[in-house]
Structure formats: C-alpha cells, structure tokens
Design brief:
The protein is mostly helical. The protein has helices at residues 4-23, 27-50; strands spanning 80-83, 92-95. Helix content is 39%, strand content 7%.
Length: 113
C-alpha cells in the first residue's frame, strides 16, 4: 500500500504537469491533472487517518527447541505424537510434550524435602 508520502509525491508531479499544460494553453488537460492531484492528496489524508503509523515489521521467531526424536519429524508442523486418553477407545494427535514449543506442559512436582 502506498504511503502518504508517495501519494503526496504523485500529487506534486501531477500539479507540475498541470502547470506546464496551463502555460501551453491546454486548460482541460491541466484541469484533469489538477483534479487527479486532488484525489492523490485526499488519498494521502485518508491513508494517514486510517493507518497513522507505519506498520512495524514482525519480530523474528525464536529458534525451535531441539527435536526430541520421539515425535514424527523435526519440522515444527510435524512435531506431533499419537496419544490415547484414559477411558477412550481411539487415538488422537497431540503436540509433542517434549519438544513442541506450543505444547501444554504440566508443571513438574516439587521434590520433597
């Protein structure tokens, strides 16, 4: 999406062309350029109003944890294991609790003193 600056630059170029057309006596063409320049100025204003700040680049993702070797593959999309929950007769896929970064992990019980 063009920035407000790019819209204003385009408007300025159109107005310069309109000035040349005016000096050449081409009034309708100059008027068309001026109207188009006004549209670019309105677009710049609207763009600034909708998205006032430049969009921040996304932060790089942290590196993946080491692959544990017991789940399907090292690729993040394949770090799944087959589990059968107690009381169920079927298996389901779940994120590997050892190496998938978004796996739900239960806290380790504290050692007794």
């Amino acid at each position: 999406m063009p920035s407000p600056y790019e819209h204003l630059t385009a408007a300025e170029e159109l107005l310069q062309e309109a000035r040349v057309l005016l000096t050449d006596g081409l009034y309708r063409a100059a008027d068309s350029h001026a109207q188009l320049a006004a549209s670019f100025i309105e677009a710049a204003h609207a763009r600034e109003k909708i998205l006032p700040n430049a969009i921040e680049p996304q932060k790089p993702k942290p590196p993946l944890p080491e692959w544990c070797g017991s789940c399907d593959e090292p690729d993040l999309g394949l770090r799944f294991v087959t589990v059968t929950l107690p009381g169920e007769d079927f298996s389901r896929m779940a994120r590997c609790p050892k190496c998938h970064p978004k796996a739900v992990r239960t806290p380790e019980p504290e050692a007794a003193l």
